Amino acid sequence: MSSIAEEAKDWVFSIAAAVILALLIRTFIVELYVVDGPSMRPTLKHEERLVVNKFVYRMRDPLKGEILIFRYPRDPSRDFIKRVIATAGDTIEIKEGRVYVNDSLLHEDYILEKTRTEYPKTTIPEGTIFVMGDNRNNSEDSRFPDVGFVPLDLIKGKAVLVFWPFDEFKSLN
User: Of 26, 136, 124, 44, which Cα lies nearest the Cα of 81?
Assistant: First the structure.
């Protein structure tokens, strides 16, 4: 075989290996995500770019306070980004603009303003979580029937890093 043919074969193999590796990483480990809308302000802004860890929830369930991406229950082709407020077995209640989890006031220094909606004391079912946007009065989240309790199998991953724009670069841990 000529050296040109061998070199072409090496290039094709290298490119194919890189594409396969990139697809595996994107499918199972990390994905890039663009924030769409104001529901997570002030923590996240419209059109910021995030790195999403898709692997972490294969090892454990989401924890309260984490920001995650999930498929919208009514239309799984759409992705939502919200904060985990309560997990399976917890009770949630919203009264007088304040959120209570397991009868304790949730201290939320990340929200824009108190919520204007009430939510009756409810226990989060097994296999689900309760999520809310940080911009409480402009967020479609678990308080509303279209979203409701989010099944764990609809969760895509944990938002871990804002990487664009560069001046907004930050970790979301």
Answer: 44
Which residues are identified as catalytic?
39, 82
| Cβ-contact 22, 32 below 8 angstroms | no
Gap between the Cα atoms of 46 and 149, Å rounded:
24
Question: Which three-class secondary structure state does DSSP give residue 128?
Answer: strand
Reported confidence tier of residue 133, pLDDT bands at 50, 70, 90: very high
pTM: 0.84
The answer to whether residues 110 and 43 touch, using CB atoms and an 8 Å cutoff, is yes
- Which helix or strand (DSSP H or E) is residue 146 part of? none
Give, in order, the Cα–Cα distances in Å from 72 to each of 12, 46, 107: 39, 18, 27
The residue with greater pLDDT, 68 or 77, is 68
Q: Give dist(CA 15, CA 103) in Å, integer.
A: 56
DSSP codes, 57-75: HHHS---TT-EEEEE-TT-
